[in-house]
Amino acid sequence: MSKSRTIGINLLYMNRRFSGGSITYGINLVNELIKLDTINNYIIYVNKDCKDLPILTSPNFKVKVIPFYNKVVYVRYFWEQILFPFYLLKDNLDVLHSLGYVGPVFCPTKHVVSILDLNYKRHSESMSFSKKILLGSMVKLMSIFSNKIITISEFSKNEIAEGLKVKENKITVTHLSGSNDNHKNESTLDIKPLYNIQSDYIIAFGSPSSHKNIIGLISAFSNVSKKYNDIILLLVGHQHNNNELQDYIVSLNLKGKVQFTGFVPDEHIFPLISASKLFVFPSFYEGFGIPLLDAQSARTPVACSNAASLPEVGRDGALYFNPYDTVEMESVMMKILQDDLLRENLIKKGSINRSGFSWKITAEKTLECYNLNNLF
């Protein structure tokens, strides 16, 4: 029988005011480890904002709340770097896994760190200079002082190896999955009235971050709209308070044709995608691309950027375009809307591709990294 070890999972980076792939990653990974591992003992470290995370229960897993609120990044770093190591010493861990790019530099145990991508280097326009420098410095220190780095795509592995000068054998890829592996192929929720949607729509995830390429998507959609006057572009997520973006929509005569949902609860994401005519993922940069798999799970055809990790995730279950070329983006969107056979083919291939990803696989590969013999 294998000897039981004590493994810490560092979720101090989480902030309940925000959603995103790193939050989905943390919650799903922990829940799958709970199902998978009945031998080792785990301590899940969270801040006071996240004491009620939707985490399953198990006798060998316990949650420990570190007494700070993660409202300012500098407060998190102070606790994580100065005070958190004393908690780790007291708990006598064998391994600590920090999931949010950064963990304690001087970690008193073997340390696995998840660095999901290098977006802070590649597309940092929406990040303050001081935050960019701080995050960049901390991630660089993690690449030096950690025993193992986990990342989420072969694309990110190559970026980390080259950009941070890390040997490739120190980096392990654990692909992620969709937001939820338990979705059914059909939704019974009548979602359109809940968001006052009165026509067919193309769906995408709206974000003020420049690397999400929402301006490019709106530009491409403006020509699609001229040919499909009865279709709107639905951008899911927090309302944009960007006057420049709103002015751009007006300048293209798209007022009323581009609709923002505002905040959407997790249980509405799948029905919204499922009821759409087309899912578009126009990003310049993604370390993985969970929404792409969500669209494939919802049996919705996908038009996708060919940048970064996205072809690695979507494979042949999407039709790709150059995100810097709005004419090509428009052309791909039009092809899918016009060709029923193409749509059916993309849905079929997307469903097959989606079946190759699961959080169980993510957890199994992560658990292998906790093996002390695999740590440098």
Question: Can I get a quick summary?
Answer:
Helix content is 40%, strand content 16%. By secondary structure, the protein is an alpha/beta fold.
What does this structure look like?
This protein is 40% helix and 16% strand. It is of the alpha/beta class and 376 residues long. The strands form two sheets. The protein has a seven-stranded parallel β-sheet with strand order 3-2-1-4-5-6-7, with helices on both faces. α9 links the parallel β11 and β12. The longest helix is centred in the N-terminal third of the chain and has 19 residues, at 73-91. It starts with 5 loop residues before the first strand and ends in a 7-residue tail after the last helix. The mean pLDDT is 92.
- Strand fraction: 15-25%
Specify the structural class: alpha/beta
Number of strands: 13
Average residue-wise pLDDT: 92
Low-confidence runs (pLDDT<50, min 5 residues)? Answer: none
Count of separate DSSP helical elements: 13
- Sheet with the most strands? 7 strands, parallel
Provide the spatial order of strands within the biggest beta sheet. Answer: 3-2-1-4-5-6-7
Helix content: 25-40%
Using the alpha-carbon principal axes, give the shape.
globular
Rg, rounded, reads 21 Å
- Report how far the terminal alpha carbons are from each other: 24 Å
- Secondary-structure element sequence? EHEEHEEHHEHEEHEHEHEHEHEHHH
